[in-house]
Amino acid sequence: MSDQSSPSPVTLADVAAHAGVSMATASRALNGSSRVVNAEMTERVLASSRELGYSANALAQAVARGSTRTVAVVLGDVADPYFSSIAAGVIEEAEKNDLVVTMWATGSQPDRLLATLKAMRGQRPQVLIIAQSGHLDPEDDEPITDELAALQKSGTTVCTIGEASGGFRRLLVGNYEAASELATALVARGYSRFVVLRGDPALRTPTERSDGFRAGLKSAGLEPIAVEVGGFSRAGALDTMAAALASGLRPDCVFAVTDVMALGAAAALRAAGLEPGVDVGVAGFDDIESVRDVTPAMTTVAIPLAELGSRALRVALAGESDPDEGSIAGEVVLRESTPAR
Amino acid sequence: MSDQSSPSPVTLADVAAHAGVSMATASRALNGSSRVVNAEMTERVLASSRELGYSANALAQAVARGSTRTVAVVLGDVADPYFSSIAAGVIEEAEKNDLVVTMWATGSQPDRLLATLKAMRGQRPQVLIIAQSGHLDPEDDEPITDELAALQKSGTTVCTIGEASGGFRRLLVGNYEAASELATALVARGYSRFVVLRGDPALRTPTERSDGFRAGLKSAGLEPIAVEVGGFSRAGALDTMAAALASGLRPDCVFAVTDVMALGAAAALRAAGLEPGVDVGVAGFDDIESVRDVTPAMTTVAIPLAELGSRALRVALAGESDPDEGSIAGEVVLRESTPAR
DNA sequence: CTTTGCGTGGTAAGCGCTTTCCGAGCGCGT
DNA sequence: ACGCGCTCGGAAAGCGCTTACCACGCAAAG
Fold first, then answer.
1. Per the CB < 8 Å rule, is A107 touching B92?
2. Residue B140 confidence (pLDDT)
3. Measured between alpha carbons, how far apart are the two ends of chain A, in Å?
4. What is the rounded average pLDDT of the residues A122-134?
C-alpha cells in the first residue's frame, strides 16, 4: 500500500546483475529465444529471477519486439449475454494461445465505433475481433474501413463477426437463412399474423434477421402485419412492443431479432394482459442461456455464441488461408413460447 | 490485407520530419504536455499527423512514461451475468477516465487466480480490480497476497470487491446482512423448511451469504434442513438440487447464494415435478437482469452490480483517502417465486 | 547598454527490453 | 601445428516514445 514512494519494479538488469551475467544472457534464459544458453547459467538466472520476484515488463518486450500478444475485442455491451458469450469464447481461446484480451465497448451508439478503433490502434493489438454489427451502407462505414486498413497496416489482423465488408477476415453467420427457417417453422405451427421487432435498420445483423424472416414468410405467401423498430435492449423492445399494442396491433406471434428483445416483448405482452405462449407466440434469436429459464421457454435460433468467439480468434490467428471457410449456421429451436395452434 | 511485407506504422519521427520539427516538439504538440508550443507549429504537427495517419504507440509511451493507462479486471467468467455486469460498470467508468480495460477470467478453478495475477503483472496495469471471490482462509491466499503486494510494488493499485483481506483498497458488500434480512423476510412469509444451495465453502462470498442466511433463520429459531454445496453455475446447481431431491429432501423453500444457481435449482425442481413458487419457494441473490423474466419472477437480493464495478474503479483511482468508505448494501426484493403461504 | 529571466525549440539521455553482431574458446580434420 | 567451423557470452544498437537539460532570442529590469 502507498508504495508511491518506491515504485521500483525489478528489471531485467537487476536480475542479470544478481546472477552475474549479461542482460543478453538473462533475456535469453528467461524466455526461450532461438539461442541456447548453458544449463547452469540458465539455472542461475532463473534462481535470481525468482529470488528478486522479477516479472518481465510485457510492454517493453512489445516495444522491443515490435509486436504484442494482445487481442482486442470490440462489442456493444459486455452485460448483454450475446456479447459476453462471444467474449467468453474469445477469452478461452486467447488463454490457450497465451494472449491477453482487451475489451472495448461501444455502448448504445454504434457511431462510437470509430473513436474506439482510433484509440485501440494505439495499443497495437495483434488481433482485433469485431463482434459489433456494422453498418449496412458501405458509405456509412467508409471512415471505419479506413481505420481498419490503418490497423492492418500497423500489424493488426482484423476479424469481423457476421460482417461482409471487404478485405478482412470474417466469420459469416447464417442469420438470413436461419431466420427464414424459423419463419417457415412458425407458419407450420399455425401462426399467420406476425409482428417483427427489430433493431436499427442501418445495421447489418438485425436487417439480415428481419429480412430472412420476411423471406420465410413470403415463401408461405405471408407477410408481417407490422415491422417495429426499437432499441436493442430488453427495455427498448419492451417500450416498442407496448406502444405497438397500445396502437391496437394484435399479432398472433411476435418475432424479435434478439432474445434479449424477445424477453422485453414478452414482458410487454404480459403487462398488456396477454400471456406469451398462450395468447400470442413469441420467438427470439441467439439462444442465450436465460431463454431456457423463462416460462414459457422461448422459441429461438441457436447460435453457438462462445464458439463464434473462439473461432473468430482462430481464424485471425491462422495463416492467410481461406478467410471465408464456411458460415456458421443457426439452428431453429422450437419451444413452448410458440405452441402449435 | 497481407501487409505482412510492410508493417510500417507511422512513427513520431516520421511526423516530426514531415512537419519539419524535432521529435520533442512533435511529442509535445500531440499530447498536452506541461510545455507550451507555438500555435503555428502545433498546427503544422497536427496536420502532418493527420495526413500520415499517425497513431501514437501507447506501449512505447507507457515504457517511456513508466506507467500505463490500463485497468485490469479479474473475474470468474465473463458470460456469467454477475461478472459481466460488474465488468460493464468498470468499462463505463474507465471510458470516462480514458483508460483501457483488460479482462482476465479465471474460469471454474479459482486456483488459477495466482497464475492469472502473475501473467497480469507483466502488463503493469495502473489499476487492478478483483471481482473474483477470494479464499476465506488467509493461509490459502498467502501466495496471492504476496503476488498482490508485488503488483502494488510495481505501481498497480489493487481494489478488491467484497474481500476483506488486508492492505488493499476494497469495496465491501453487505452479503451477510442482506442474506440475513432475506431469511427473515422469507420466514415472515411462512416458510420454514429451507435448503441452502451454496458454492465452494472455502470462498468468501458464498460463505458470507450462506452464513448470513442461517443467522437470519436462527434469529427466528430456525435452521436449514440442509446446506448443499455445488458448482457456481446454473448446471452445477441443477445437478446438486436434483441429487438433493432424489435423496428425498423436501424443502418448502430453496435459497441459492446466486441467482444463476437459483435458476438452476428452479429447473431441477421443475424436472422433479415441483412447480417453483407453487410447490416450493425459490430465492436467489444478485438480482441479475434475467431473473425478472423468469416465471415465477425470482425473489432475490438486489446488488447494484454495475455500480459495484464503476465504484471499484473510482475507489482505486481516488487518492489514499479512506479505502473503507461504506459497504454496499443489498436490498431484499420479494417476488412471486416466494409467495406467502 | 548590460544583466536577468522567461518562453520555447532542439539535443540527447533514458524507459526496459530484444537481437544483431562480434569475438573468444573449443573440437576436429589434415 | 594449423586453420576451419561451431557454440555460446557479452557489448551495444536499436524499438518508439518522453523529458531533463541546454541554448537561444527577446523583453523587462537595473
1. yes
2. 73
3. 66
4. 92
The candidate with the shortest Cα–Cα distance to A242, out of A216, A215, A272, is: A272
**pLDDT, tens digit (0-9, with 9 covering 90-100), for A301-326:** 999 999 999 999 999 998 655 555 66
Residue A297: is its pLDDT beyond 60?
A: yes
CB neighbours of residue A1 within 10 Å: 13
Looking at residue B35, what is its pLDDT?
A: 84
- In this structure, the dihedral spanned by the alpha carbons of residues B6, B10, B14 and B15, taken in order and rounded to 10 degrees, is 160
- Split at pLDDT 50, 70, 90, the class of A295 is confident
B interface mutation test: which of A68, A73, A293 has the most B CBs within 10 A? Answer: A293
The pLDDT tens digits for A193-204 are 999 999 888 888
Q: Distance (Å, rounded) from C-alpha A269 to C-alpha A274? A: 5
Residue A130: pLDDT over 50: yes
For residue B306, give Cα distances in angstroms to A109, A152, A302, B303: 19, 34, 28, 9
pTM score of the predicted model = 0.91
Q: What does the pLDDT read at residue B1?
A: 37
B8 shares contact with chain A (CB less than 8 Å): yes
Q: Give every CB contact of residue A53 below 8 A, 6+ residues apart in sequence.
A: A10, B150
Strands B70-75 and B127-130: parallel
SS3 of B160-216: the string is EECCCCCCCEEEEECHHHHHHHHHHHHHHCCCCCEEEEECCCCEHHHHHHHHHHHHH
Residues 128-157 of B with CB under 7 A from strand D: none
Query: What is the structure's pLDDT at B319?
Result: 63
Cell 506501449 sits at which residue?
A: B59
Cβ–Cβ < 8 Å for B59, A126: no
**CA neighbor of B341 nearest in space, from B139, B190, B233, B128:** B190
SS3 content of chain B, % helix, strand, coil (to 5): 45, 15, 40
Interior CA angle at B251 toward B247 and B256, to 5°?
95
Residues for chain A: how many in total?
341
Minimal Cβ distance to B100: which of A102, A290, A292: A102
All three cell numbers of B138 = 488467509
Measured CA distances, A244 to A84, A164, A210, B69, B132 (Å): 30, 32, 17, 46, 42
Instruction: Sort residue A107 into left (φ over 0), alpha (ψ -120 to 50) or beta.
Output: left
Q: How far apart are CA B60 and CA A117, in angstroms?
A: 18
Asked whether the CA dihedral A263, B87, A103, A135 is positive or negative, the reply is: positive
Q: What is the 3-state secondary structure (H, E, C) of A141-168?
A: CHHHHHHHHHHHHCCCEEEEECCCCCCC
Which residues of chain B register pLDDT less than 70? 1-7, 108, 110, 165-166, 319-326
Q: Give the angle subtended at the CA of B327 by the CAs of B321 and B331, to the nearest 5°.
A: 150
* A127-145 average pLDDT score: 83
